[in-house]
Structures are given as structure tokens and as C-alpha cells.
Fold:
Amino acid sequence: MTDSLNVPESPITPVTPVSRYQHYYDYLASNVIDEFYSVRFKKLQSLKLNKVLRRKNPYLYKAKNIEIVSDLVQSTVDAFLSSQEETLFGGLLEKFAIFVSSGLHGGFKSVLPSVDLEFERDNKYYIVGIKSGTNWANSDQIARMRENFKSNKETLKAKGVNKEIVAVNGCVYGKDSVPLKVNADDKELNYYKYAGQDFWFFITGDDDFYKEIIKPIDQEARKKDEQFKKEYAAKVNEMTLDFTKDFVTNNQIDWEKLLDFTSKRREVKAKSAKQPTKKKQPKT
Structure:
């Protein structure tokens, strides 16, 4: 292996921009942005004050000197929504990368450990683990990925793959100036790490592809975000009213009540939490 970028010998044939990228735009609109906002809407709609407050740290709110109810509620809502967005969006772009590779090289979703994509190109067989950003793992996780890559190569060779097998850790955004990761003791543990522009160039052979992705994301997000902001504002207002009812005394946040609710040994129920209605027993 060399330290050079593994790219197609024949990049995407230049044609008109519309025909070249439109099916990628369509996929991103319907399978990435639509799905992303669908999950965001569901998370927002499911959010209840009493449930989310039990998982929050009241001492942190106090340390940040939050004294305005709407600020505290908005901070809580934002943290709840963003807690899994990076993983969610990264997973959707992983599927997009597989979609792009399937059209260009017959790539397909892998079931091998640490591998998301497999494809053949230029007499080489690629196994690719796709992550969102570059700082996704600690040293133990990297070591496990290397070992999985090595065992995957042995598995594929046993199944009849006789081409050179190249392991790649692809990151949908970020940078890495030293793509070839060498293990001095065992070359079978070597792998390439391509990030951002280099990753999408590795998949497509198109140096501008990483910039093309942003165009439909921008257009579709603008359409979705207007409705999302309306529902977001409604949820923040709803939870602000609930918080005021339960944890405000003399127009100030009652930190003792809030601490009792989150941390007191005996369970404290919020007034705003809906209690189950008891069914009337039939007269005997």
C-alpha cells in the first residue's frame, strides 16, 4: 500500500450538472432530510417536562446562574433534541454513501464487524467503516477496529475474494492529513482513514462532491425548519407554563422544590404531571 488516495481510475464522467447530481439531491431530500426532521418532530412531540427534568442536573443549572424559567426550559429542550442528532445524521449520511457507492461500483451494506460498506474497484476489494466525524473513538476502539479489519480480510479470502483487500475508515466530515495508518508490527492491521473531501473523493472520484451534498440539505432544511420552529416554540411555551406551576414561588425559581423533585429520597410528583384517572367501580 502507498500513502496516496485510493480513487477510481475513471472518475464520474462529466455531464451536465443537473443530470450528474440530481438523483443524489433527490435521495438526500427524501432519505436524509425528511427522515432527520421526522425523528426530530417525534422527539419534540414526546417531550414531557417531568420526565426530562428527572434526568437533568439541577446543580449545573444553578452553576450557570439560570434564573429565568424560559431560559432553563429552552436549555433543557435543546439538550434533549441534540443528544442523539450527531449519531442520527451520521447514520443517514452513511446510508447515503452506500447508495452512492452502489450506483458507481456495486457497493453494498456489509454485515462484517466494523464494516459498513463493501465494494470492488480497480482490481481491489474495499471494506469501509463509516463514521460521522474523525474523533469518534478512543485507542481501545481503534485497536478493536484494526483487529476486526484483519479478521474480516481472512474471512473474505476464505470466501474466495482473491483481490487485494483494502481497509478504510471513512469519515463524512473532517480532515486527516496522514491517511495511511501503519502498524509497525503487523501490516495486516494497516488501514486508511479518509475524512471530509477525501472520503467523498474516495467514494466518487469527484473532488467537488463534498460541496454538492450541502446544496439539497440547505434547500430542504429551510422548508422543514419553518414548521419545526413553530412546534418548538409551542413546546417551550407549554413546558415553561408547567415549570412555573410546579417550581416557581414568588416569581422566582424554587430550587428547593426542583432539588426535591430530582433528588429527594422519597418520590416527589410534579403538579403538572397528569395523574391516571381511577375507573369508577360498578355499584353492587
User: Anything to note?
Assistant: The beta strands are 108-109, 117-121, 124-131, 164-171, 180-181, 191-195, 248-249, 252-253. Residues 214-247 form the longest helix (34 residues). The longest strand covers residues 124-131.
